[in-house]
Design brief:
Elements (H helix, E strand, L loop, with lengths): L12 H6 L3 H22 L7 H5 L1 H18 L10 H17 L6 H29 L2 H31 L13 H24 L5 H6 L16 H28 L8 H23 L5 H9 L4 H33 L7 H24 L3 H8 L1 H21 L6 H24 L7 H8 L1 H21 L5 H17 L7
Helix pairs in contact: 2-6, 2-7, 2-8, 2-13, 2-14, 4-6, 4-18, 4-19, 5-6, 5-8, 6-18, 7-8, 7-14, 7-17, 10-11, 11-12, 11-19, 13-14, 13-16, 13-17, 13-19, 13-20, 14-17, 15-16, 16-17, 16-20
Length: 503
């Protein structure tokens, strides 16, 4: 390593590769989940309008798990194991077990529970990886570091997305009796569990983290950084708690009364959103009580951090909101939307439905393959135009790709759509984090990365509660229009990047 003065040393490309390989396993699991879980739910009897609420396990789990893991890992040091790597390994073991079990469930409620457990385990591994780049690389290499993660994410998703189709090609059954998950999906999930564990283990055993003393020598942290300094006053916690509790309770009450007396009922899934607002208010009130007692612990520290987000993080949060709303629409509805739009079927046991289910896996492989290729382009574009401008270009391409779902009547033309979506996906995985890490204090890299995940999770919760309503009531079950809404959301995200200054 050649040491910079002051600051962390630059790492070689080989070292950056080693610290990124684990994301191959993480995205292998996510790729299987994204391409197959809606299919599993429908196979086990879920109606199309109920799919989003079944998916809500994933974002809810991230909302809870990531800030906790980020906060704990910021304050962890386990000798030769470091502070981020123990979480990589623990999450990998749990996620692999979940992948082995998931495709063997026999009831819809079991599938929903397994999605929850799988996503919780993946989040335990994934959250520290974002902070890992901030820990290990100087700002001049962070775009490269996150782009390398995007590359491995793309490769992992390509392989996992096409795996059921490859197995089908070699004779593994892709159809089954009603209520039974096909063998092609079962074998893919077992393979995913093995790949996840091996990829994470590779990064854990080939990468050495900087010790607290080394970070101090780089000027990253100070001796006083272990102290807990709560800036939010008890009265401020009380004020925020009352406001959010009233908003959450009022919306919950309106929803309840509407469903009790109105002729046109609203979806009960909206209780997830209104209840979440109420819960946030209650947590603020609990924090106020602990503040009055001068308690200092992880809970009140995280609640305090929520009230003092860096300005760059606030602006990026809005961009993330609209970006991930679009992605969640695509992941949930691609299979049912294309089955309806191209083959005019909603029968999950039909040859046409399962054919398009496999083709969606192939399309997802295409957009992830494009993302892997574009990963090498991002650092070049960022140096030429700036990071916000690069992100804007990518998001516009992704939005147009989603809108083109409606325009193309031939399934093969959708590969063109995947090119735009791939560029957007690559950028979403890299550019916001590259812009964010320069604005975060090193001592809170993990917890702020966890909090930043809120702005991925909240739109997913909103999507899971509202997309079903849109599809059923506004679009009369025609899910292709839901995909178009996602495309418009991504274009809005692109325009919002104009508010971000690149330092």
């Amino acid at each position: 390593m050649s040491v910079l003065s002051p600051g962390k040393p630059k790492l070689s490309i080989g070292q950056i590769i080693n610290m990124s390989v684990g994301f191959f396993g993480i995205q292998f699991a996510f790729g299987l989940q994204n391409a197959n879980v809606s299919r599993i739910f429908q196979t086990l009897g879920a109606k199309i309008e109920s799919i989003p609420i079944l998916w809500i396990a994933a974002p809810l789990t991230g909302l809870i798990i990531q800030p906790i893991i980020g906060h704990i890992s910021d304050k962890t040091w386990l000798g030769r194991w470091g502070r981020r790597r123990p979480f990589f390994m623990a999450g990998a073991i749990l996620a692999s077990l979940a992948l082995f079990i998931f495709p063997n469930v026999s009831a819809l409620w079991m599938a929903a529970v397994m999605l929850w457990l799988l996503d919780a385990s993946i989040n335990v591994s994934m959250e520290p990886f974002r902070a890992f780049v901030g820990d290990m690389l100087p700002d001049s290499q962070r775009t490269t570091g996150f782009a390398m993660q995007s590359f491995f994410i793309g490769i992992g998703a390509v392989v996992s997305s096409i795996l059921p189709s490859v197995l089908t090609y070699y004779g593994v059954r892709n159809t089954a009796d009603p209520g039974i998950i096909p063998d092609s999906v079962k074998i893919s999930f077992i393979a995913g569990g093995a790949v996840f564990l091996l990829a994470i283990a590779y990064t854990v055993f080939t990468t050495k983290e900087y010790s607290p003393d080394e970070l101090k020598s780089f000027g990253e942290i100070e001796a006083s950084d272990n102290s807990i300094n709560i800036k939010t006053t008890a009265s401020a916690f009380v004020k925020k708690g009352i406001i959010w509790s009233i908003i959450g309770a009022a919306l919950t009450g309106v929803l309840y009364l509407n469903n009790l007396y109105a002729r046109e009922k609203l979806e009960k899934e909206l209780y997830v959103l209104t209840g979440g607002l109420l819960l946030f208010g209650i947590l603020q009130l609990i924090a106020s009580t602990q503040r009055k007692q001068n308690k200092k612990n992880g809970f009140i520290e995280v609640m305090d951090d929520l009230n003092f987000l860096p300005d760059t993080m606030k602006k990026l949060a809005v961009v993330q909101f609209f970006s991930w709303f679009a992605l969640f629409a695509m992941w949930i509805y691609s299979t049912p939307a294309l089955a309806q739009h191209l083959y005019h079927t909603t029968d999950t046991t039909s040859v046409e439905y399962n054919r398009i289910g496999n083709w969606v896996g192939v399309l997802f492989a295409w957009y992830n393959g494009f993302a892997a290729l574009f990963a090498f382009l991002l650092p070049v574009l960022a140096r030429k135009f700036s990071r916000p401008a690069t992100h804007m270009i990518a998001l516009i391409a992704g939005g147009l790709g989603l809108v083109s779902y409606y325009l193309f009547k031939n399934e093969n033309f959708l590969i063109i759509s995947m090119a735009g979506i791939g560029l957007a996906w690559c950028s979403i995985l890299a550019m916001p984090y590259s812009m964010l890490t320069q604005a975060l204090p090193a001592k809170k890299m993990g917890v702020y990365m966890g909090i930043f995940n809120f702005f991925i999770v909240i739109p997913q919760i909103l999507a899971a509660t509202l997309l079903g309503v849109f599809t059923k009531h506004l679009f009369h079950g025609n899910a292709i229009y839901t995909i178009v809404v996602g495309g418009c959301s991504m274009i809005i995200a692109a325009l919002l990047t104009l508010r971000i200054k690149d330092k």
